[in-house]
Design goal:
- By secondary structure, this protein is mainly alpha-helical.
- The protein has one domain.
- The chain has twelve helices and six strands.
- The strands form three sheets. Strands 1-2 form a two-stranded antiparallel ribbon.
């Protein structure tokens, strides 16, 4: 069977599997009390959390289909392990609250250090050089394997996790970046990694159909860390480190804004959420995150602000496409 047909089928299978999985999953999560308040809706309704469970199982349905075709490249298996490690870690965080509530804590440190080891299955499957748009290639050898590789995936995962603020924001961001990365890989003839990306895109689309405003499910750390790790894995395995770095600029800006806020107001209680006015617009408590920056100047609804976040990510990804 033609690889293009197989990959297209993998998206369809994971999407259909996701749609089927999410209906009973959301019901069960509600029954068990795994819910969180949607803070930017009037009345703050309860919404099921840990949507990453549905993404993971729908994604695995696509992977099982690809395995059955006998076309699955061997290099996909170690990447699959890394992705599932991040899902399991995020799932445990959803259940046990590994990060804790304090700004700086032993638990938060562990949340950064432990995922660094998840990248080790990829040690034999990545190029230790980083190509730059100027045709300059930086060879890093062991430094790449022991420093760049684990930190790149960990940082990517946490950037997406921090960017998961409004309904559909993290999933939409992931979809934009992975779609353009897939096009780049297809144009270059590097098809192997598409066997990992395509089923994930289908699962992500199924989740996004439930996660868009008004959200029927939240991703939780299990979903956000998996989405971010997927972006990082594509960066290191496809030699797209610079491309992904540029595409993630809005997420990096958000991180720097939050870091500055925490350093500036060290010791003070931080507001995790803004409010919602009677007309449905966001009442931003300050300008210290990228998500609050625009609503603090203009009266915007959650849907409008999410669209702005999508636009920023799209522009940075287009910039990465042009430069790289």
């Amino acid at each position: 069977m033609d690889p293009g047909i197989i990959l297209t089928l993998s998206i369809s299978i994971t999407y259909i599997a996701g749609v089927i999985i999410f209906a009973p999953l959301l019901k069960k999560l509600k029954q068990k009390g795994y819910v969180g308040r949607d803070m930017y809706k009037l009345g703050h309704p309860f919404v099921p959390e840990m949507g990453g469970i549905g993404i993971a199982f729908a994604f695995l349905a696509g992977i099982l289909f690809l395995m059955s075709t006998g076309k699955m490249p061997f290099s996909i298996y170690p990447a699959l392990f890394v992705l599932l490690f991040y899902f399991i870690f995020g799932f445990l965080d959803d259940l046990l609250g590994i990060g804790g509530d304090e700004e700086v804590s032993h638990d938060k440190l562990m949340k950064v250090i432990i995922p660094l080891f998840f990248a080790f299955p990829l040690l034999k499957y990545v190029d230790t050089s980083i190509p730059f748009p100027t045709s300059y290639v930086l060879e890093l050898g062991i430094i790449y394997l022991l420093v760049i590789l684990p930190f790149y995936i960990m940082v990517s995962a946490n950037l997406v996790n921090m960017f998961s603020y409004y309904n559909g924001q993290s999933a939409g961001t992931t979809l934009i970046i992975l779609a353009f990365a897939s096009l780049k890989l297809y144009r270059s003839g590097d098809m192997e990694l598409l066997y990992l990306i395509f089923p994930f895109l289908g699962a992500n689309l199924a989740f996004l159909s439930y996660n868009l405003q008004p959200a029927g499910v939240f991703p939780g750390d299990s979903g956000d860390l998996m989405m971010g790790a997927m972006i990082g894995i594509v960066g290191v395995m496809a030699n797209l480190e610079v491309f992904i770095f540029i595409a993630l600029i809005p997420l990096s800006i958000n991180f720097l804004m939050v870091a500055y806020w925490f350093l500036k107001d060290r010791g003070k209680v931080k507001t995790k959420f803004g409010g919602v006015r009677s007309d449905g617009t966001i009442d931003a408590p300050n300008q210290h995150t990228l998500m609050w920056l625009f609503p603090s100047h203009i009266r915007l609804t959650e849907k409008q602000t999410t669209f702005i976040m999508y636009l920023l990510v799209l522009l940075s990804t287009l910039l990465a496409w042009i430069i790289c």
